[in-house]
Specification:
By secondary structure, the chain is α+β, with helices and mostly antiparallel strands. The protein contains twelve helices and 37 strands.
C-alpha cells in the first residue's frame, strides 16, 4: 500500500517542474512543466489553497442527441480537458466517452445514431482532425496533417461533408466522405480563398449548401449539385449580407437568419428560385442569432440577442405564432438543437447558475435541467448578477456593457475595477458565468466591467462595421475612454485603482488603452494580443490573412501599412509607464507568440516591468486546466501587487 501511494504521488508530481519537491518544502506551488514564467513571481501555496474552490468548477455544454438511446451528448471536464460524455436521462450520471489529452472541440451523431464523429487538434494549433468513436477508441478519418472542419451528415447518414486544406495547405476545400470508408473522400468544391464551410444537405441529399465567409458582414452562399459537381451562387457579391443558422426544413425550404434588407438579422426564407430573402420573424432592434428546425417541420426555435442576453422563442409553422420560453434563467443560450423526437436541447450559461445542459418541450415550454455541474462546493446562486451599463460615446454613438459589482454589504466603500475587453474584434461581451474570476469579485471585492465597444456583434451590421480599417480602428479605443470616464464618476468605484485586461484583439485594446489612458490606469494584462498590426498580418497563418485584412486593413498597401504602424502599440511601447503582464500560447496560429515577444522586449528596454507567462502546449488561449489555474494565480499576484496596493 505504501509503495502504491508513493508511486501515485510520483506520477502526479511528474507533470510539474523538476523542482516541485523543493517547492513544496518552501511552500511554493509547483508550476506545470509546459509553462515558462519570466519575471512572474513564484506562487505561494497559500494562494492556491485560498482560491481552490473557485478552481474546481465544471461546465457542461449540450453537444447533440443520441438518436438510438435518446441520451444527451455533452462536453465537460473531469481531468485536464473537456471531453465527450453521455447522459442517459435528466440528472443521470455522466458516462465519459472520449479520453484524449486535448479537448474535443465539436461532435455529432449520424442521423440514426450508428456513428459518433468528433474533432480535436494538438496543443492548440487548430489543425483539427476528424475521428470516429469506434468501440470506445478514436479512429482517425483524416490525414493527420491537414486542417479539417467537421461538417453536416447527409439526411441518409451515408455521407459526411467536411472542409480540409490538404490540397493547398491554405484554404478550405469542401469534401464528401463515407465515414465507414475514409478512403472514399472526394473533393466537391475547390476554393480559391476566404472561409469555405459546408452547411447543410437538402432533404433529398441531392444538393449541399456551402458558405463562404468573406467578412462578418459578407457571407456568400452556394448550392452544389452533388451528382454533377455544379455550383449555383445564391447571393450577390455586390450586396454584402450576413447569415447565421442556415438550415433546410423538411419541406425543402431554406431558412436563414439574415440582415438582408435590415440592420439586424431577421428569421426568414431564402427563395431558391429567385435567391431573394423573405423575412418571416422580425425582432426590430435585436439580432436573431441562431435557430434550429424540428425534424417534423412544426417548430423553429430561435435565439434573440438583447444587448448580449439571450431570449429563446419558438415559431409555430402552422399558426405563425411566436412564444417565448420565459422560464429559463437569465443568461446566454447556445447550441440549440432538436432531437428526432421533438425535444430541444441547449446550453445555458449564467453567473448565478453556472453552465449546464437543458431541454425544452416546444409544445408546453416545460424546461428540464439535464446536468448540474460542480462549482467547487460554492453556491453559484450567490454570485453577483451583472448590471447593464449604457453610455453615449465621444460621437454620440450609444453602447453598453456589463458590470459585475461586489456585494456592498461584504465589501464596503469604493471598489477597485478591472475593465475586461473582448476579442474578435467581432465578439460580444455577454452576461456569462465568470468561473475563476468570481474569486476577484466575491473574495477581493474587485468590480469587473465588460464593455461592448464599436465593432462588437449583436447590435446590427452598422455598429459592427464602425471600426473597420486602420483609420477608424482607434475609435474603439476612444470608446474605452468614455466608459472609463463614466465609471470613474461612479461613487462605488475607486477611481485611483482601475486596470485593464483583454484577450486577442482585446489584448491590442489593452495595450492601446494603457498608452492612451495610462494616467488613469494602474496596470494592464493582455492575453495572446496583437502588438503590431503589420507583423500580425504578416505572421498570422496564411489562410487567415485575407480575412483579417478585410477587418484591419491591408499591410501590402503603403498608405494603409503606414497607418497600421502608426496605431500599433509596439511603435510607442516605450511610452507604457504602468506595469504589464502578457500571457502567450506558443502554438497560437492566430496571434503568433512573436507579438508578445516584441512588446515585452520593448517595454523592458524602457526599464518597466513586463511579466510573461508562456505555455508551450497551448495556442490561442489556455485550454488545459493546470495551465489555466496557474495563469489565474499569476494574474492574481499581479493584480494584488499593482492594482490593490494603494500607494
Amino acid at each position: 500500500m505504501r509503495f502504491a501511494l508513493a508511486w501515485q504521488i510520483a506520477v502526479i508530481f511528474s507533470v510539474f517542474t523538476g523542482g516541485a519537491a523543493a517547492a513544496e518544502a518552501n511552500d511554493i506551488a509547483p508550476r506545470p512543466a509546459a509553462l515558462v514564467a519570466d519575471q512572474v513571481p513564484d506562487i505561494p501555496q497559500a494562494i492556491v489553497d485560498q482560491t481552490r474552490p473557485y478552481m474546481e468548477y465544471r461546465t457542461a455544454s449540450f453537444v447533440d442527441w443520441d438518436p438510438g438511446t435518446k441520451a444527451m451528448l455533452i462536453a465537460t471536464r473531469f481531468a485536464e480537458t473537456r471531453q465527450l460524455h453521455r447522459v442517459a436521462a435528466p440528472m443521470a450520471q455522466r458516462e465519459q466517452l472520449t479520453f484524449a489529452s486535448e479537448p474535443v472541440s465539436s461532435a455529432r451523431y449520424a442521423p440514426d445514431g450508428s456513428s459518433l464523429l468528433f474533432q480535436k487538434d494538438s496543443g492548440g494549433n487548430e489543425v483539427h482532425q476528424i475521428f470516429a468513436l469506434d468501440d470506445g477508441q478514436p479512429k482517425l478519418l483524416t490525414d493527420g496533417k491537414s486542417r479539417n472542419s467537421l461538417g453536416p451528415w447527409s439526411s441518409s447518414g451515408k455521407l459526411l461533408a467536411f472542409g480540409s486544406n490538404k490540397r493547398t495547405g491554405l484554404y478550405n476545400d469542401i469534401y464528401l466522405m463515407n465515414p465507414a470508408r475514409p478512403d472514399s473522400a472526394r473533393m466537391l468544391v475547390a476554393s480559391t480563398g476566404g472561409g469555405w464551410f459546408p452547411i447543410d444537405f437538402s432533404p433529398d441529399d441531392k444538393q449541399l449548401l456551402v458558405f463562404n465567409y468573406v467578412s462578418v458582414t459578407d457571407n456568400q452562399l452556394y448550392l452544389i449539385d452533388i451528382a454533377k459537381g455544379v455550383s449555383r451562387k445564391l447571393t450577390d457579391s455586390s450586396n454584402p449580407v450576413a447569415y447565421e443558422g442556415l438550415q433546410f426544413a423538411p419541406d425543402g425550404r431554406l431558412w436563414a437568419a439574415s440582415d438582408d434588407g435590415s440592420d439586424v438579422k431577421r428569421l426568414g426564407i431564402v427563395n431558391l428560385e429567385t435567391s431573394l430573402f423573405e423575412p418571416v420573424v422580425d425582432e426590430k432592434i435585436w439580432d436573431i442569432t441562431d435557430f434550429d428546425i424540428s425534424p417534423d417541420g412544426r417548430w423553429i426555435a430561435f435565439e434573440v440577442n438583447q444587448a448580449g442576453r439571450s431570449v429563446l422563442k419558438f415559431y409555430d409553422m402552422k399558426s405563425g405564432q411566436v412564444r417565448a420560453a420565459d422560464g429559463l434563467p437569465a443568461g446566454v443560450i447556445s447550441g440549440a438543437k432538436f432531437a428526432p423526437w421533438g425535444e430541444l436541447g441547449l446550453t445555458l450559461n449564467s453567473n448565478q447558475t453556472g453552465t449546464d445542459a437543458y431541454s425544452i418541450n416546444p409544445e408546453t415550454l416545460a424546461i428540464t435541467r439535464w446536468t448540474r455541474s460542480e462549482t467547487g462546493g460554492l453556491d453559484a446562486a450567490k454570485n453577483v448578477a451583472p448590471e447593464l451599463v449604457e453610455i453615449e460615446s465621444f460621437d454620440g454613438e450609444k453602447m453598453s456593457g456589463f458590470l459585475y459589482r461586489p456585494d456592498p454589504a461584504r465589501h464596503k466603500g469604493r471598489r477597485p475595477l478591472i475593465i475586461n475587453i473582448h476579442g474578435g474584434p467581432e465578439g460580444q461581451a455577454t452576461p456569462r458565468f465568470l468561473g475563476r474570476d468570481n474569486h476577484l469579485i466575491n473574495e477581493l471585492g474587485i468590480a469587473i466591467f465588460y464593455p461592448n465597444v464599436r465593432g462588437s456583434t449583436g447590435f446590427g451590421k452598422r455598429f459592427v462595421s464602425l471600426d473597420n480599417g486602420p483609420w477608424r480602428r482607434e475609435n474603439s479605443v476612444l470608446d474605452v475612454g468614455e466608459f472609463l470616464d463614466h465609471l470613474r464618476k461612479d461613487k462605488r468605484i475607486d477611481r485611483k485603482r482601475i486596470a485593464v485586461t483583454g484577450g486577442s484583439y482585446g489584448g491590442y485594446m489593452t495595450l492601446a488603452s494603457m498608452l492612451r489612458y495610462g494616467s488613469k490606469l494602474k496596470a494592464g494584462l493582455e492575453v495572446v494580443g496583437i502588438s503590431s498590426f503589420v507583423t500580425f498580418l504578416e505572421n498570422t497563418e496564411a489562410y487567415r490573412r485575407d480575412l483579417r485584412r478585410v477587418e484591419y486593413g491591408d499591410e501590402r498597401i503603403p498608405e494603409q501599412r503606414a497607418k497600421l504602424e502608426e496605431i500599433s502599440p509596439l511603435l510607442r511601447a516605450n511610452e507604457i509607464k504602468i506595469p504589464l503582464m502578457v500571457v502567450t500560447g506558443a502554438n497560437d496560429p492566430r496571434v503568433p507568440a512573436s507579438e508578445a515577444d516584441q512588446v515585452i522586449a520593448a517595454v523592458r528596454a524602457n526599464g518597466r516591468p513586463a511579466w510573461h507567462l508562456l505555455a508551450e502546449n497551448e495556442g490561442h488561449g489556455f485550454r488545459k486546466k493546470a495551465n489555466g489555474d496557474y495563469q489565474f494565480w499569476a494574474s492574481l499576484i499581479f493584480w494584488k501587487k499593482y492594482l490593490l496596493e494603494e500607494k
